Amino acid sequence: MSVLGTPGAMPRELVIASAGSGKTYYLTSRFIQLLATGTPPNEILASTFTRKAAGEILERIIERLAKGADDADEARKLAEDTGHEPLADVTECRALLASVLTDLHRMNVGTLDSFFVRVAKSFSQELGLAPGWTIADNLLEKRLLTDTVQTALSELKTSELAALLRALNLDYSKRRIHEDLLGLVDRLIFIQRHLDPDLTGHWQPEFGEPAR
Questions:
Q1: Residue 2 φ then ψ, to 5°
Q2: CB 120 within 8 A of CB 129
Q3: Which residues, 6+ apart, have CB-to-CB distance to 202 below 8 Å?
Q4: Which tops the pLDDT comparison, 7 or 139?
Q5: DSSP code of residue 50
Q6: Alpha helix segments (H runs only) across the chain
């Protein structure tokens, strides 16, 4: 996990510790400290690996401020943990809590994946990405493969298509052609990814009679 503040406001820190050692507690203390000292929420980043963990970070921030806003002892403890003395006052905790809830949509608490996607979308032109690009999930990937297979088949001659179907079916009359083609595409993609990127002319399919 990491928290980044406004450049120059506070030195950046790298916290490395084992599970259950209090990294999240320290991270939320640092986050609250930055907010309390005037750093805009959109200039702070808290990142982790899973959505669940990101949700817990945001929940802890709000929960600790809410406790400080309701209890003087909790407010004093929060002031100690953050090193920001004004938070020892319940009124100060309430004001900061209200500010956080108002600007909740500006809080940068999320996964590393979501952060990199946001950066890529901001610089899509510089990265050479097509407008409106998105991350492909399993359903989208299958749809793209299906469209690719259909396009490839539509460009085949009738004799080539018949030879391909015979090669796939062999003696199994009940095999599912569509699934077989998608499986073949998956294998070809795997091969392509492991080939020399400078290799050219390596896809020259020749559909002939299946071997006996």
A1: -150, 155
A2: yes
A3: 195
A4: 139
A5: S
A6: 23-36, 51-70, 72-82, 90-102, 112-122, 138-154, 158-169, 177-193
Helix (H/G/I), strand (E/B), else coil: 132: coil
How does pLDDT run across 149-166, given as a tens digit for each residue? 778 777 777 777 677 666
Question: Which pLDDT does position 3 carry in this prediction?
Answer: 46
Q: Is 12 left (phi over 0), alpha (psi -120 to 50) or beta?
A: beta
Q: How far apart are CA 72 and CA 90, in angstroms?
A: 6
Burial class of residue 46 in the structure, from the number of CB atoms within 10 Å of its CB (0-12 exposed, 13-18 middle, 19+ buried): buried
What is the tens place of the pLDDT at every residue in 114-153? 889 888 988 988 888 888 887 766 777 777 777 777 787 7
The residue behind tokens 């002939």 is 208
Cα atoms in the Cβ-side hemisphere of radius 13 Å centred on 184: 16
How do residues 12-28 score in pLDDT, each as one tens digit? 677 777 888 888 899 99
The bridge status of strand 45-48 relative to strand 108-111 is parallel
Q: The whole model's pTM is what?
A: 0.61
Contact 111, 48 (CB under 8 A): yes
What φ, ψ does residue 18 adopt, rounded to 5°? -75, 165
For 39, 59, 62, 72, 99, the CA distances from 75, given in Å and listed in that order, are 20, 17, 13, 5, 16
pLDDT digits (tens, 9 = 90+) for 165-208: 666 665 554 456 667 777 777 777 788 777 777 777 666 555 45
